[in-house]
Amino acid sequence: MKAHLTRRYHFSASHRLHSDAYTAEENQAVFGKCNNPHGHGHNYVVAVTLAGEIDPATGMVCNLGDLDAFAREHLLARFDHMNLNTLEPFLTLVPTTENLTIEVNRIFQDFPFARLERVVVEETGNNSFVFGG
Ligand SMILES: Nc1nc2c(c(=O)[nH]1)N=C([C@H](O)[C@H](O)COP(=O)(O)OP(=O)(O)OP(=O)(O)O)CN2
Ligand SMILES: [Zn+2]
User: Fold this and answer.
1) Which residue puts its alpha carbon closest to atom 12 of ligand 1?
2) How many Cα neighbours within 13 Å face the side chain of 20?
3) pLDDT tens per residue, the chain (133 residues)?
4) Annotated catalytic, 34?
5) Which BP terms does GO give this entry (predicted)?
6) Is the CB of 102 inside a 6 Å radius of any atom of ligand 1?
7) 82-83 and 40-53 beta bridge pairing
8) Which residues contact 43 (CB under 8 A, 6 or more apart)?
9) Were both Cys, which of 78, 97, 98, 117 would link to 123 (CB 3.0–4.6 Å)?
């Protein structure tokens, strides 16, 4: 029997929306207040949904302890209390939440015990971005 599980993770990070492809004026016109050189922060909420067969012995799609350990190592240790602009892949990509959602999706593709189906990243209470089903 197959099932889905969703787990939420929280981290705080700063960023500045800025593109080297634009002049200072164009950056200001496109990104507005988010182009402020001092940057600003968000309390991001990441929800990952995974799918798999329920193991008859454990009754689980995957052990949340394994998923948490993976998230700590590959997501939270990388991004929590960091400036996203200083980290790959945002050295060359604008750290919008769309691009962050794609990176989170890439990270959890490597989780070995269940298949990633969907990633949602909430930037503020008003903005959330979805990758996948
Ligand atoms: N398509 C996108 N547009 C914007 C993004 C983004 O990631 N993708 N990000 C931002 C900024 O990060 C910005 O900080 C969000 O600001 P704003 O929309 O003003 O935030 P809220 O109104 O939701 O909440 P506040 O009360 O202002 O914190 C902008 N655009
Ligand atoms: Zn922002």
Assistant:
1) 34
2) 5
3) 999 999 999 999 999 999 999 999 999 999 999 999 999 999 999 999 999 999 999 999 999 999 999 999 999 999 999 999 999 999 999 999 999 999 999 999 999 999 999 999 999 999 999 999 6
4) yes
5) tetrahydrobiopterin biosynthetic process
6) no
7) unpaired
8) 10, 11, 12
9) 97
Rounded distance, CA 1 to CA 63, Å?
A: 16
> ipTM higher than 0.85?
yes
Strands, sheet with 115-122, edge to edge from the N-terminal-most edge strand? 82-83, 2-15, 40-53, 115-122, 128-132
- Measure the CA–CA gap between 62 and 39, rounded to whole angstroms: 38
Taken in order of first residue, the domains within the chain and their CATH numbers are 2-132 (3.30.479.10)
Tokens of 71: 């998230």
What does the block give as tokens for 85?
A: 């602009």
Q: Is the CB of 35 inside a 6 Å radius of any atom of ligand 1?
A: no
